[in-house]
Amino acid sequence: MSKFDVDEALVRKLAALLKDTGLSEIEFESEGKRIRVNSGAGAGAVHFPVATAAPVAAAPAAAAKPDGPPAGALTSPMVGTAYLSPEPGAAPFVKAGDRVNKGQTVLIIEAMKVMNPIQAPVSGTVKDILISDGQPVEFGEALMIIQ
């Protein structure tokens, strides 16, 4: 049986994503190897295909950023590629100045070949779109301003 090397940075990112999104579990699979991080009963347990587990060390508390995302910013819940329209050549989901309702899809982020609809967290007006179509985005990156 081959050794499964754990990418600690990936595990920490997955654990942070759980905390930031309120999800109870997240799973990542690549090349037949799978990592599952959950915040359930065994909080912070990492599960491998061979049923071994290792605790996830708590990520250090991030220092408060005085220059954090702008007020009303919709931030990326994941790393991926952002798309402003449902398919190439189609009209964008929203434009600056459009009124949106809470829960309305405003863009898509493709992550690991999965298209993830990103919804407006609040009702309001799209003040600015901070990314371009097809742009790679990082977790926590400001995507648009909705006020």
UniProtKB/TrEMBL annotation:
<protein>
    <recommendedName>
        <fullName>Biotin carboxyl carrier protein of acetyl-CoA carboxylase</fullName>
    </recommendedName>
</protein>
<keyword id="KW-0276">Fatty acid metabolism</keyword>
<dbReference type="InterPro" id="IPR050709">
    <property type="entry name" value="Biotin_Carboxyl_Carrier/Decarb"/>
</dbReference>
<keyword id="KW-0092">Biotin</keyword>
<dbReference type="InterPro" id="IPR011053">
    <property type="entry name" value="Single_hybrid_motif"/>
</dbReference>
<feature type="domain" description="Lipoyl-binding">
    <location>
        <begin position="71"/>
        <end position="147"/>
    </location>
</feature>
<dbReference type="InterPro" id="IPR001882">
    <property type="entry name" value="Biotin_BS"/>
</dbReference>
<keyword id="KW-0436">Ligase</keyword>
<dbReference type="InterPro" id="IPR001249">
    <property type="entry name" value="AcCoA_biotinCC"/>
</dbReference>
<keyword id="KW-0444">Lipid biosynthesis</keyword>
<dbReference type="GO" id="GO:0003989">
    <property type="term" value="F:acetyl-CoA carboxylase activity"/>
</dbReference>
<comment type="pathway">
    <text>Lipid metabolism; fatty acid biosynthesis.</text>
</comment>
<comment type="function">
    <text>This protein is a component of the acetyl coenzyme A carboxylase complex; first, biotin carboxylase catalyzes the carboxylation of the carrier protein and then the transcarboxylase transfers the carboxyl group to form malonyl-CoA.</text>
</comment>
<keyword id="KW-0443">Lipid metabolism</keyword>
<dbReference type="InterPro" id="IPR000089">
    <property type="entry name" value="Biotin_lipoyl"/>
</dbReference>
<keyword id="KW-0275">Fatty acid biosynthesis</keyword>
<dbReference type="Pfam" id="PF00364">
    <property type="entry name" value="Biotin_lipoyl"/>
</dbReference>
